[in-house]
């Protein structure tokens, strides 16, 4: 990576800068000795708030638990300790349910890959307590969705039927459906795609052929192979603007393992995620201190990729949360532009063409019998213009 390129972190909060440096260094005491100014004027309530937002408090606690209170206040260590313990119980709870669901799906002959959760923590960190997870994300073939739903409903899960669709656009516009178990307080996301469409991605069969078995459970539980995992993590992290450091920590941990970078590079270029891959590698390298090797240097040297990495700092400066509606208008506009700039030429073309396919809003604007839904294709420009005109008039 060119030495002359450096991320401009001038406008990120002091507390976040300290968190990043603590994640980079093995010893908080040594960091305090070498850079005492990093600890000046820290708002410790904001510090805790940011560790929670970025989901890095388990790793931070593992680094800070032996730190003297003249470096980090005791109350802060205690708070991190409480959250760490709470997360450990949560991950154990999810691990048990993950193994149980895997057995149930195996009985029904539903092939199943876990995308995140405890298996990812074990794979990347070697310890499920060092990564957070609020739910179980699993990937199955799309033709197994009905069978999977039946299994989960029989076990007490309730489906969150939020997807609206017309002409079956849900199959590619969406990528998962959510189930929730009230008694167990566990959320399960059943994916049939890694990411929302219309972008291309590996087939389930290809992912299954390259799968890895987790060492976490006695019953076989599978996750993505490392090369596919890198593709998934960078596509997911970039889609959310790397607005949480945990996603960059995952990249940092993954690139420390043995990966076939030639195959990984091929996957990124084949499916149009080479910009996202380069962006993730630059951010992980510059923020967390992991040097990229010569096999992947081509992903990180382009000026356009460096520019995309700098654009992602916007999310760190503002503590952006894209998961809670409503997202502020200024952030939503920036995010739309940023996502478009990450796309490959092919992805941009497919994205623009997808606007020609009818949306559920078209059916709400003009209700037609199902037999005549094909008419939404020629009517879509008119219906879109009508909604825009009406919205403008109302405002």
UniProtKB/TrEMBL annotation:
InterPro entries: NTP_transf_5
One Pfam family this sequence matches: NTP_transf_5
Name this protein carries in UniProt: Nucleotidyltransferase family protein
Organism: Virgibacillus byunsanensis
């Amino acid at each position: 990576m060119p030495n002359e390129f450096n991320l401009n972190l001038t406008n990120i909060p002091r507390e976040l800068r300290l968190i990043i440096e603590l994640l980079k260094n093995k010893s908080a005491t040594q960091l305090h000795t070498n850079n005492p100014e990093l600890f000046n004027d820290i708002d410790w309530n904001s510090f805790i708030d940011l560790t929670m937002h970025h989901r890095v408090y388990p790793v931070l606690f593992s680094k800070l638990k032996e730190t003297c209170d003249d470096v980090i206040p005791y109350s802060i260590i205690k708070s991190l300790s409480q959250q760490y313990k709470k997360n450990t119980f949560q991950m154990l709870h999810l691990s048990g349910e993950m193994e149980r669901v895997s057995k149930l799906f195996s009985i029904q002959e539903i092939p199943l890959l876990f995308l995140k959760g405890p298996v990812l923590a074990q794979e990347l960190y070697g310890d499920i307590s060092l990564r957070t997870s609020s739910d179980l994300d699993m990937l199955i073939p799309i033709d197994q969705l009905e069978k999977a739903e039946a299994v989960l409903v029989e076990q007490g899960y309730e489906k969150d039927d939020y997807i609206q669709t017309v002409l079956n656009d849900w199959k590619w516009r969406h990528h998962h459906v959510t189930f929730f178990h009230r008694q167990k307080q566990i959320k399960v996301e059943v994916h049939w795609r890694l990411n929302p469409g219309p972008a291309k991605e590996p087939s389930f069969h290809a992912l299954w052929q390259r799968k890895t078995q987790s060492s976490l459970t006695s019953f076989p539980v599978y996750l993505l192979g490392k090369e596919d995992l890198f593709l998934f993590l960078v596509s997911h992290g970039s889609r959310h603007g790397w607005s949480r450091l945990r996603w960059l920590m995952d990249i940092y941990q993954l690139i420390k393992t043995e990966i076939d970078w030639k195959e990984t590079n091929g996957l990124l270029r084949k499916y149009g995620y080479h910009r996202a891959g380069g962006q993730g590698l630059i951010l992980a390298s510059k923020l967390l201190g992991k040097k990229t090797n010569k096999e992947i240097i081509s992903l990180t040297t382009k000026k356009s990729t460096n520019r995309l990495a700098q654009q992602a700092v916007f999310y760190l400066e503002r503590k952006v949360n894209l998961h809670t509606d409503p997202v502020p208008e200024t952030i939503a506009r920036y995010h739309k532009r940023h996502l478009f700039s990450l796309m490959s030429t092919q992805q941009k073309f497919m994205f623009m063409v997808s606007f020609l396919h009818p949306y559920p809003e078209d059916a709400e604007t003009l209700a037609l019998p199902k037999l005549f839904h094909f008419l939404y294709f020629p009517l879509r420009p008119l219906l879109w213009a009508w909604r825009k005109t009406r919205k403008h008039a109302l405002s």
